[in-house]
Amino acid sequence: KRSYNVSELAERCACSAANISRHLALLTRHGLVEREMRGHCAYYQLADPALDTLCEHVYQHLARSGPTVLK
User: Fold this and answer.
1) pTM for the complete prediction?
2) What are 40-69's pLDDT values in tens digits?
3) I need a surface site. Which of 9, 11, 53, 68 has the fewest CB within 10 A?
């Protein structure tokens, strides 16, 4: 499984680190994401590989709905 820190996710998503951090805290609290400390930096990954498949299906559905949905 690939894991990312907040800065990496913020860059990939073009969002602020604070916004990503708040979302990751919520996802971690609900068991969807796992957090691992490496030195002073936290890395996050999906808690269950099946979630990756689910996310891909949702993304494909949204992509078929039109480009304005994914903006």
Assistant:
1) 0.77
2) 999 999 999 899 899 899 889 888 887 665
3) 68
